[in-house]
Amino acid sequence: MNQYKEQLKTATRSINPTVESRYSTFIPEYFLNHIKSKNSPKSLTNQFYPRLEELNEGGMLDPIGDISKSKSNKIIHRYKNRVLLTPTTVCPIHCRYCFRKNELNENNEIYKGELDKAFEYIADHPEVNEVILTGGDPLILNNKQLENILNELSKIKHVHFVRLHTRTPVILPQRIDDNFINLILKYEQKFLQINTVIHINHLDEMTPLFEEKMKLMIKNGLSILSQSVLLKDVNDTKEELLNLFQALIRLKIRPYYLHHPDKAKGAMHFYLSLDKGRKIYHSLRDELPGWAIPHYIVDIPGGLGKTIAYNPESFHFTGTLIDRKGEQIPYESIL
Ligand SMILES: *Cc1c(COP(=O)(O)O)cnc(C)c1O
Ligand code: SF4
Question: Is the pTM of this model over 0.70?
Answer without folding.
Answer: yes
